[in-house]
Hints:
This protein is of the alpha/beta class and about 425 residues long. About 45% of the residues lie in helices and about 15% in strands.
Amino acid sequence: MDLFEKLLKDRGPLGKHSDVEEGYFMFPKLEGPISPRMKFRGKEVLTWSLNNYLGLANHPEIRKVDAEAAAEWGLGYPMGARMMSGNSAYHEQFEAQLASFVKKEAAMLLNFGYQGILSVIDALVDRKDAIVYDAESHACIVDGVRLHMGKRFVYPHNDITSLEKQLERATKLTQETGGGILVITEGVFGMSGRMGNLKDIVKLKKKFNFKLLVDDAHGFGTMGKTGAGAGEEQGVQDEIDIYFSTFAKSMASIGAFIAGDADIMNFLKYNIRSQIFAKSLPMPLVIGGMKRLEMLRTMPELKDNLWKIVHAIQGGLRERGFNLGATESPVTPVILSGGVGEAATLTRDLRENFNIFCSVVIYPVVPKDVIMIRIIPTAVHTLDDVAETIGAFEAIKDKLTSGIYQKDELAAAFTR
């Protein structure tokens, strides 16, 4: 069969609806300055879809530093990969600041989060080694694990008993191959909002010889006394061997970093292919990143404002009987029952009749007949925003339960 013919015959569970969803449900265009109120299709909507946890994306101090750095350096400098011609004192300064903030000896900048962690996994293990990872890990981790040429073992989400069994299997295997074991989990899981059970994972280090890689994209800046993440929140930051976070969440920028012991960071600096063979992070992103980290470190009111909104919206929804799962973080999943067609109709109702823009998650990200409305509170939302949203959610829940959405023409279009 012709390769393209095969692909176009089956566009996948999301792509098969592209004729009715693109530009509205998928690839929508939010316009205007990044804030809780933006424009969607010419109309102002209250948006809960941006991972702008601390409200830094459009903060005037951030905008000023970003603009000045772009004017001074342009987007080209430095040219080339860090190893060859793309290094600078500012890159090294930013790395030192990041390491200090997350309480590690050294850190390394990465150009992108997805690409970065995938490449970190590749650099850390070879075919003799075993990976043990949480089943609900983000796609970037799953893809990194898939590229691993050795054995991999998966355990159900946060199931420490199963993790121990997988570690027993991995230990037996690596005793034969002469390899090591890498355990991978997340600090905060981006769909459920649950923290990885880091406390119990690190206890297993007394029994098994493994290294721990934690993806804390959603925990960095939001969790822990200082904002240093889920490890700080659980009192085990020292036990995390490789700490990873992206700048795309609390930092509201582009890029990522890893941090750990100086010797392993030095090893990765010379062996991580996504950085060796890619252009260095542009200077405006480095200088802008340092400003963001400074504000994150010196303005605790940003995190305090975030959590005020988190407690208000999560508490208000739970009081009204909504299922938010077991979230322990700002990530707020509202879990409802319904099919893809009902999810589409519900989403349209929220946007058109209540002027609320939320991300709605459907199969295959969640099980069939589950609708997850994923709310991301930020430090720049208000309690009025919370009250407006809770009122709208009560209305759509009643419609969903009564079957109104199931009878809609749009729902029928998604079930063909």
